[in-house]
Design brief:
Elements lengths: L1 H14 L2 H18 L6 H5 L4 H25 L19 H5 L10 H5 L12 H17 L7 H14 L19 H18 L4 H4 L22 H19 L12 H19 L4 H18 L4 H17 L56
Helix pairs in contact: 1-2, 1-4, 2-4, 4-7, 7-8, 7-9, 8-9, 9-11, 9-12, 11-12, 12-13, 12-14, 13-14
Protein name: Xylanolytic transcriptional activator regulatory domain-containing protein
Keywords: Membrane, Nucleus, Transmembrane, Transmembrane helix
GO molecular function: DNA binding; zinc ion binding
Length: 380
């Protein structure tokens, strides 16, 4: 029942019923905690000595952990039930090991994975582990998302975000295998790291201060604009770089239906940063921004076949982009290698009237999403 409720929560969320999805997820988490699925011995006690069944129980808990972290970021709710109890469950094995039925009893703990940074010998961990770590960092970002955190705390989280990629082993640096398959768990891990980077830095940059209502684009509730600091340009640069990395993920040649539906929100966030940066750059980087937005719009169009929320988002993004990226607005003659470091043009909100679009309370409101077919209905 826990697995069924978890999958249903994801499906109805992406279908355009976020409140129902959130409620179903909390229902699944409550049931899992009451059963003791967060304890180390649960899988062994209830796995009937079947390694793959034990692995299934472990993976279920960690999936609850990850999905709650993502939904909490979308709904701007820093308090999470899966963090309120000890997660003693051993970490998941590689997906290929699980799908091949080659599971084994035992595995690494979260503490062992965390301590790898200072270990003398390199230890191999599954892609799931890096995804779990990424959502942990995302949760740390959410804990200070709407608060005037001490600069040292912000820097500490930024250090974790920057360090994360350095500890991904060489054999996992490339998301695409020799056979052309994308490691979807690592894909999600990179998605979460860049998503978290934007959520940390955009409110502390001039990107959001262009107009406070731009926060409405973040899929659900808005972000609080932080007081201006001397490092606002550095924050803008990091947020913009993260949005570029998200668009790079979108550029991978693979069936979009294999991606998590949560990638939709990541794409929206990337497009908002690109549109804001485009306005602030004052046409100097129009080609780059236009190409990235074009890619995001195309991917959302493909994802809308399966997920209703992508279709609703697509309409909003296209309407905004049409105002910002009109060809006649710029001559677009600047060489591309002169643009990536652009962060500010000194424009104020009064000079970017397209941002008034976000004053519409229905913009990016999940509650206005029209429910569509679940992805598995297409095959029935």
């Amino acid at each position: 029942m826990v697995q069924a409720r978890l999958l249903f929560a994801i499906a109805i969320h992406a279908r355009g019923e976020p409140n129902e999805g959130q409620a179903m997820l909390q229902n699944a988490i409550d049931l899992a905690i009451s059963l003791g699925m967060n304890t180390k011995d649960f899988a062994t006690l209830h796995g009937d000595s079947l390694p793959c069944l034990e692995e299934s129980f472990r993976r279920t808990w960690w999936e609850l952990f990850v999905v709650e972290g993502i939904m909490s970021a979308i709904h701007r709710k820093p308090t999470m039930k899966t963090r309120s109890v000890a997660s003693e469950v051993l970490l998941p094995c590689e997906d290929s090991t699980y799908t091949d039925g080659a599971c084994f009893s035992g595995g690494s703990s979260l503490a062992q994975f965390t301590d790898r940074h200072f270990a003398e010998e390199e230890v191999s961990f599954s892609s799931s582990c890096y995804r779990i770590e990424a959502v942990q960092i995302l949760s740390r970002v959410m804990s200070i998302a709407n608060a005037e955190a001490h600069p040292d705390e912000v820097q500490a989280i930024d250090n974790s975000l920057a360090a994360w990629s350095h500890y991904v082993p060489p054999e996992k640096r490339d998301l695409i295998s020799n056979s052309g398959e994308v490691d979807e768990l690592l894909f999600q891990a990179h998605m979460l790291i860049n998503w978290a980077t934007i959520l940390l830095h955009m409110p502390r940059s001039e990107l959001l201060s262009v107009h406070p209502a731009t926060a409405d684009i973040f899929c659900a509730k808005g972000d609080k604009q932080m007081p201006s600091t001397d490092t606002k340009h550095a924050h803008a640069s990091k947020a913009t770089d993260a949005s570029k990395e998200l668009s790079n993920l979108a550029a991978l040649r693979c069936p979009v239906q294999k991606h998590t539906p949560f990638f939709i929100c990541a794409l929206v966030i990337a497009s908002v940063v690109q549109l804001a940066a485009c306005t602030l750059h004052n046409c100097r980087c129009m080609y780059q921004h236009r190409d990235r937005i074009t890619l995001v719009v195309g991917l959302l169009k493909s994802l809308s076949v399966s997920w209703a929320c992508a279709g609703s988002v697509l309409i909003k993004i296209k309407k905004i982009a049409a105002k910002v990226l009109k060809s006649e607005h710029c001559t677009m003659t600047v060489a591309s290698n002169q643009c990536d470091s652009c962060t500010d043009s000194g424009l104020g909100s009064e000079e970017v009237p397209w941002l008034e679009f976000f004053n519409d309370p229905t913009v990016m409101s999940f509650e206005r999403f029209a429910p569509g077919p679940l992805f598995f209905e297409e095959s029935t």
